[in-house]
Amino acid sequence: MSALPACPKCQSTYTYEDGALLICPECGHEWSAQGSEPAPANEARVVKDAVGNVLQDGDTITVVKDLKIRGSSLVVKVGTRVKNIRLTDGDHDIDCKIDGIGAMGLKSEFVKKV
What we know:
Helices cover 0% and strands 32% of the residues. By secondary structure, it is mostly beta strands. A three-stranded antiparallel sheet has the order 1-2-3, with no helix packed on it. A three-stranded antiparallel sheet has the order 9-6-13, with no helix packed on it. Strands 10-11-12 form a three-stranded antiparallel sheet, with no helix packed on it. It comes from Pelomonas aquatica.
C-alpha cells in the first residue's frame, strides 16, 4: 500500500506522484505534494476589458482602437459594437461575430464593455 494521500476531490486512493505533483488517475485532479494547492485548471479565469471591467459571456462590447485584419484589407473601426461575445482561452480572449466582417477573435485589451 502506498503512503500517498487520497485525492482531495474524489477521495480516490489510486493517486501517484509525478515530480512535485500528486495526480489522481480517476478524476484527473492535480495538487502539490507540499500541501499548497494550485488553482484548479477548470476554474473560470477573469477576463477584463481595456478599462478594467470584468467581461462575461453574452456581454456587448465596443472596440476602442482601429484593428486591421491580417490577410485582408478590412478594418474594424473604433466604436464598432459587438453583441453576444463568447470568452475563450488563448491569446485572443473573445470570440465574436462582427457585422460585415464575420467571425473573429479579439483581444480583451482592445475592447470596452458597454
